[in-house]
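To whoever picks this up:

The parser on our side crashed when reading a file containing two proteins. I've narrowed it down to the boundary between the first structure block and the second sequence. Both blocks are reproduced below exactly, byte for byte. First block:
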Amino acid sequence: GASDDAVSCAVMLEILNTLSKSPEPLQHAVIFLFNGAEENILQASHGFITQHEWAKSIRAFVNLEAAGVGGKELVFQTGPENPWLVQAYVSAAKHPFASVVAQEVFQSGVIPADTDFRIYRDFGNVPGIDLAFIENGYIYHTKYDTSDRILTDSIQRAGDNILGVLKYLATSDKLAKSFEYRHGNVVFFDILGLFVLAYPARVGTIMNCITATIGFLYLSKKVLQPKGRAIHNLKKLLTAFGLTLLSWVCTLVVALTVAVFVSIIGRSLSWYTHFYVSVFLYGTAAAAKLILVHTLAKKFFYKNMNEQYLGDTFFDASLMIWSIVLAIVTQMGLCSAFICLLWVAFPLLTKLMIHKEFSQKGATMKFVTMYMLGMFVPYVYMMYLSWTVFEMFTPIMGRKILPDAVLTGFIVVITVILSSYFINFVYLVKSTKTTLITLTTVFVVTLVLVCSGIFFPYSSDAANPKPKRVFLQHTSRRFHDLDGNVIKSDSGIWINGFDYNGISHITPHVPEINDSIRTPCEEQAPFCGLPWILPVHFMFRLVKNWYLPAPEIFPRNPIHFKVLSKELMPWNSVRLSFEVSGPSHMSLYVQPHQGSTLSTWSLGDGVPVASVGGDYFVFYSHGLQAMPWHFWVELMAPEEHSDGIVSLAIAAHYFFGEDQKSPQLHALLERLPNWTFSSGWSSTYDLFVF
C-alpha cells in the first residue's frame, strides 16, 4: 500500500503544509480529499461527490493514483474536454510526463482497471487530471509495496509537479468560469520529459489532413512523372505497398507461432523476470522474418532491377501506408493520430531534402547520415513511447490470458513501425546475409534456452522481486433447487493462479495442487458457481481453476438470505423481494433463465447492466454495524417455466477477523514457495432458483 496510495497521501500532506504557510493568497479554495474504499469499487469517492455539501462548488480535481511502485507519475487521463486543464499542467508541471495515447488506451477499456476519476467525471460532472506512478508494477498490490522502495526523488518530483499545478489552478481566472472553456479535446504529449506539446484537437485534425494531403500529392506527382509511365509507376508502387503489408503479416504470423509454441510447451512468461529474453526471442524473430521477406522479393521478384529505384519505391510505399493510416485515424477522431503525423511529416521532409542522394548508387555515408538525422525525431519519440508502453504493460502481462501472444503483438507492432522507413535499405545494400545469420543465431539460441527452462518466470529476490500472484478462497458451497432443497454441497480451497502458467510451477512444492483437482465451470450457475469478488470471471475462462477438497467452514457471522415476497406485476412480470444480512463484503449474482429477462431492480437507477457473459453482478459492502440489506428484482418471464425463471446466488467474503483464514487455508498458504504472493480468505456461496 505504499504506492497505492500512501505516497500520494504523503505528497498531499506536504503540499497542504506548504500551501498553508505560503504568503501567496489563493483565488480559489482547495479541498484535500483523503478518501478510502477505492478498491471497494470506488465507493467513498462516489459518496463524497454525490452527497457532500462541498461537492457542488468543485470545478476541477487532480486525482493521485498508482499502477506501479514509484518512478515517474504519468498523466494518463484528462477532461472530459476542458483543454484549459491540460494547459495548466503544461504551464506548471516542472517535470512533465503525459500522453494522450495513455488516455485513449486506458479509456478504451483494454486495461482492466478503474479509478476515482470516472466517479468525479460521471457522477459529479467535474473535469480533472488523473496521475499515476507506473514503474515496477510487478510488486503493485503485493506485500513488497513498502515505503523503502519508493525513492525520495519520485516523491519530490510528484510534489513539484502537483504543487505547481495546484497553485496554477487555485490562482486561475478560468476556474470560476470553467464552463466557458469546456469545449474541445486536446492533443498532448511530453518530449523526453523535458516539456509538453499541447494543441487543440481541431488544430490537430487540420494539421493531420494537410500533412496527409501533401503526402498523397507527393506520391501522385511521383506516379505521374515521367509522362507516359503513370500506369507502370502506379503498378510498381502498389506492388511495393502490397509486399510491405505482406511482410508485416508474415512477421506477425511467425512471431505469434513462436509465442504459441512456447506457451504450449509450458514456458510462457520466461521473460517476466528477464525482459531482454522477449526482445531476443520475439524481437529477433520479427526482425529476421521482415528482412527475409524483402530479401527474397529482391532476389526473385525484383531480379536485375535498379537498386536505387527499388529503395525509392519502397520508401514511397511506407509513406503511402502511413499517409493512409494518418487519414483513417484522424477520421476516427483519435488524438493519438499525432504519432502518424510524425511518421509522415519527417520522412517526407527528409526525402525532399535529400532526393538527389536517393538516386545515387549505393547507400553512401553522407546519405545514411542525412537520412538518420531526418528520421531522428519520430524514431527517438517512438522509442521513448515504446519504453513507456513496456514499463506499464509488461507487469500487467503477469495477470493476462496468453501473455506471450499479447507481448509478441506489442513487439511486432513496434518492430514494424521502427523498420517501416528502413526496410528500403534491404534493396539498397548488397547483402543482408550477415544480418539474417546474426538475428537467426540469437533467436535459435534464445529459443533453446527458453525451452530448457533456464529462465524461471518469477523471482523472490529481495532487491527486485517479481512474484507470481495466487488467490485462494476456502469456500463452502450449497446449490438449492426450485423447492429450496440442497441438491449439491461441497467445501474446498478454490485456487486461481492468476496467470497463464496456472499452478504448474507450484505443484512441485505442493504436490496435492495438481491438474487432478481442476474444476470445470458450472455453466448453469451464475459466475461458474464460484464466489468471485469482482466481475472478472470472463478473463479467466481460459485459465484453469483448481478446487482442493477441504472441511466445511462455519463462520461466526454466517449469511442469512430470506425471500420476503413474490409478486405478480403487470405485463407478465414477477417481482422477488429479499433480505440479506452477513459479513461486511458480499457478492450477489443474478442469472435469468432462457426466455426470462431482468427488466428492473431496486438498485442504482433501476436499470440492470449485465457483466460480460450475460450474468448480473452486485458488490455489496457495509460497516461493522448495519441493518439487513433489502432489495428486489423484477423479471419478465413466459407463463410456463418448469425450471424457474432465475438463478440467484449470494457469496459472503470474510476479509478480516477470526473468520478470515481457516486452519487448513493458513497451513496451505505457509507451504507456497517464496516467489509467490498469495491472497487468501474464507467465503461461502449459496445458489437459489426461483
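<<boundary where parser fails>>
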Amino acid sequence: DAEVSTRKKTFTEVQTERSEQAERTVLIKCPPKLNEKKLLQYLSTHGNIKSHFFFENRGIHALIEFSEKSSIASLQDATGIPSAAEHHVVPYKSRLFTFTLKNPVSQAAEGTPVHLSPQSHIPVKELIQKLHHADSISSQMYILLNEYQLTEENIKLRFLACSLVRDFARAYFPDSTVKPFGSSVNTFGKMGCDVDMFLDFHDTQKHATKMKKGPFEMEYQMKRLPSERLATQKILSVIGDCLDNFGPGCMSVQKILNARCPLVKFSHQPTGFQCDLSVSNSIAIRSSELLYIYGSLDSRVRALVFSVRCWARVHGLTNSVPGNWITNFSLTMMVMFFLQKRSPPIIPTLDQLKGLADEKDKHVIGGCDCSFVSDLSKIKPTKNTETLDVLLGEFFEYFGNFDFRKNSINLRKGKEVNKPESSPLYIWNPFEQDLNISKNVNQPQLEKFVAMARESAWILQKEDKTQRMINKEPWGLAALLIPFGKSNPSKMKNRMKGMGSETIRSLLDSLKLNSANSLQKAVGK
C-alpha cells in the first residue's frame, strides 16, 4: 500500500523528498482546448517527465515534475518574454509559464478533455449526502477524512509555492530555503487551508562545521543589528517588497512586521493559495513533526481529528477569523489528549516519545526541550482496539463532563493538571511550557463547546440508526453535522442545566442565527 509506505518515513525524509521534487517542477498555464498527449510529447523534448497533473484555477494549469533539474533550464531557454504592447513587464524569469496554441483553429480541433485534480473539498451538504450510504460511523468518518484531507497533487502544489518563493529569497541569500510548516505538512491539513511557510538560513550553520581545518578562524563580514527581531523584520520587509514588485502572480502582499511573529501575507494566484511567510520558527517545525508522528501512528487519529474539526466548524465553535473561539490547533490537541487518556492509550505522551529519543533527536530551542523520537518504528503500536464509533461518542462524553474550572490539558504528561492560571480553557503548549495555546478562548465560547459536546454525545447515544435510515434522515456523524437549533431548541435547554443563564440565552440565540448560515460558513473552509 503506497499510503502506508510513505507513512513510515520520518518527517524530515518526507520534507526533503518533497522539496527536491518541487525544485524539478514547473507550472504551466495551458490553452483551453488542449491535446494532453501533444503537450507531454513537446515537454519530453526537454527531458523525462516524472509526474504531472492538471487542475483548474482561472483556466487549466499543468504541474510538470521533470526527472532532472536541467530540463527546466532547457525549457526556459526555449521560452520567450511576453510582448509588452499594453504593459511593461518585469523581466523576472520564473518556473511559471503560459502556453498558447500557434494555430488556434486547427489545434483546438485536436483538443482532448483532460482529467482535472480537484483542489477543494466538497460542500458539507454534499458530504452529508455521501455519509447516508455508509454502514457505520467509522466508515462515515473515513469518508469525511478522504473528502477533506490534502491530496497528493495538492501537497505537490504547496511545496511548489514554497519553492517559487525560495527562488526569490536566493537572490539575496543563496543558501536559504523556504519550507512549509503547520497544516500543509503535519497530516492534519484540509483542502483549502492556507500555506504557512518559513525562510530558513539554518543550512548555513551546518556549513560552519566544515570550516574547522586550516590555521585561521574564518568568518564572513556581515551587517550586525541590535536584535534578531530587527533582522527578521528587515529581511521580511525586503522579500515582501520583492514578491509585491516582481513576483508573478503574487497579489495582495501585506507586511505584518510588528506581530509577535513578523510575517508577510500574500495570495499566490498561480497555485491558488493564501500564503503566510515568516522567518525560521524552529518550535513551530517541531510541533508540525509531533503531529506528523501522532497522525502516522494510527489511522483513527486523523479520522477523529477531521470529524471533530468539521463538527466544530458547522456549529460555529471554530472560525477562520481570529477571535475568542477555539482554534483548530487547540481542538487537535484536545483530541490528542483524549487519545492519550484511553485505556490502553492509543498514542503515547510527549514525555514517552522523549524517552525514546536518541542523540540525533535532541533539540533544545531557546531553552525549551523539544526532543522526541523521530523514527516511527521505535514506537510500539497500541493494543487499543476501540472503534471510531465508540471513540467519537466518548470524545463528546469526556469533554462534555470535563472539569475545565479546575483542570488543564497537558500532552507532555497525558493527564489533567491543576490550572496554573484562570483562563477558561488551559492547554499547555507542548514545548514552551509557560504558554497556554488556548489563552484566546473566553468563557461563553468554552460553555458553548461543552453544550455542543453534551448534545452530540446525547444524539449518538439515543438515536435509532435503523429508523433514521428507513426515514432517509441523517444518522451518526451526519446527524452531528447539521446545526442543532434547527431540529428542536427546547430539547437542548433541558440538557444545559448547570450553565449560566446568560450563556444559555446567548447560545440559543446564536443557534437560531447559526442554523441558517453555518452550513454556508462550513463550506467556506
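After patching the parser it read the second block fine. The first strand starts at residue 25 and ends at 29. The longest helix spans residues 501-524.
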